[in-house]
Structure formats: structure tokens, C-alpha cells
């Protein structure tokens, strides 16, 4: 559908319109999105794949984590050549800037399924790009936690779209 030079027509039928409208309504109903509560701690989950990066902003509601916002984007051609740790760190940098209005000035929990990033602020980093990104995160107050990949389903899915 998006290949240059190959014209494809999308037939938008009545049933497609109905499905699209139903999906839009479902995405904003409980428990799909929670209204943000500035008094509660935010949880930011990020992930990267070879094609994109994704993030989910969550908050606790009782015993469960409910999403406040979803975000994802395709990697640029040059970014696709980054090492895995750089892609995962890019996902964090991008997500923190995307959700800055919620995260700046408050402590939040940053969850990633890429364990080497946990030691990014503790170890000596020789990679200039990673060092620059680590420095850009210094104004934020967060705890970095490693989670299992199966617990990071939302961000993982968004990184693969």
C-alpha cells in the first residue's frame, strides 16, 4: 500500500468504516486508557525491535497497571543500523521526551527488558552516543528496572508495528 511506484487502491467499504469507528471507541474505553493522576507514580515501559520503537506509560490502579498512553514509531534507516543496546536506549530517550509532560519533575519507574541498560549509569561507557543519551536523562528522577520480555508486551508490540 505504501510502496512507491506501485499504485494500490484501498477499497474503503461501509463495513471497514464501521470497524474503524468501533476500534477508535474501544481504544478509549476502560480499561484501555486511564486518566493520568499526577499524584501517583508513573511507569514507563520501552522496547525496540529492528524496525521500530515502542513505549507504554502506565499507572497503578489497585493491584494492576493500567495504561495512560501508548506511543511508537518506525526507526529511520540510519537508526536500523544501531547496535541492539543503542536501539533500546533510543527507545528510552524517545519515550521520555514523548511523555516529558508527565515525567519531568516527578520520580518514575523505567522498565526495560534489555538488562545491559540497567548498568548504563553505573558503568564506564565508551560509546559516545550512549554517553550523550545517558547525560540527557540526568534531569529526570527515575529508577531503572529490568523486566522479563513477556511482561513488556505493550511496548514490544508497538515496536513491531
Q: How would you characterize the overall build of this protein?
A:
The chain is α/β, with parallel strands linked by helices and 161 residues long. It has a single domain (30-159), classed as Nucleotidyltransferase, domain 5 (2-Layer Sandwich), CATH 3.30.420. It is 30% helix and 25% strand. It has five helices and five strands, in the order H-E-E-E-H-H-E-H-E-H. It has helices spanning 14-27, 84-98, 100-103, 128-136, 153-159, and strands at 42-48, 52-61, 64-74, 107-112, 141-146. Strands 3-2-1-4-5 form a five-stranded mixed beta sheet. Strand 1 and strand 2 (52-61) form a beta hairpin. Helix 2 (84-98) runs parallel beside helix 4 (128-136). The radius of gyration is 18 Å and the shape is globular. The two termini are 15 Å apart. The mean pLDDT is 86. GO terms for molecular function: endonuclease activity; hydrolase activity; RNA-directed DNA polymerase activity. This is Reverse transcriptase RNase H-like domain-containing protein.
CATH class: Alpha Beta
Dominant shape: globular
CATH architecture tag: 2-Layer Sandwich
Which sequence of strands runs across the widest sheet?
3-2-1-4-5
Low-pLDDT stretches are none
Structural class: alpha/beta
Relative helix content: 25-40%
β-strand percent reads 15-25%
**Main beta-sheet strand count, sense and barrel state:** 5 strands, mixed
Question: What pattern of helices and strands is seen along the backbone?
Answer: HEEEHHEHEH
Total individual domains: 1
Amino acid at each position: 500500500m505504501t510502496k512507491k511506484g506501485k499504485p494500490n487502491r484501498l477499497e474503503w467499504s461501509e463495513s471497514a468504516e464501521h470497524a474503524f469507528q468501533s476500534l477508535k471507541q474501544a481504544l478509549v474505553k476502560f480499561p484501555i486508557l486511564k486518566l493520568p493522576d499526577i499524584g501517583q507514580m508513573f511507569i514507563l515501559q520501552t522496547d525496540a525491535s529492528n524496525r521500530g520503537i515502542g513505549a507504554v506509560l502506565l499507572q497503578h490502579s489497585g493491584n494492576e497497571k493500567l495504561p495512560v498512553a501508548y506511543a511508537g514509531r518506525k526507526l529511520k534507516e540510519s537508526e536500523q543500523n544501531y547496535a541492539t543496546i543503542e536501539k533500546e536506549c533510543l527507545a528510552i530517550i524517545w519515550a521520555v521526551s514523548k511523555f516529558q509532560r508527565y515525567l519531568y519533575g516527578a520520580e518514575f519507574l523505567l522498565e526495560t527488558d534489555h538488562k545491559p541498560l540497567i548498568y548504563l549509569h553505573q558503568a564506564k561507557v565508551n560509546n559516545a552516543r550512549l554517553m550523550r543519551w545517558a547525560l540527557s536523562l540526568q534531569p529526570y528522577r527515575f529508577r531503572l528496572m529490568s523486566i522479563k520480555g513477556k511482561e513488556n508486551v505493550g511496548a514490544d508490540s508497538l515496536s513491531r508495528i
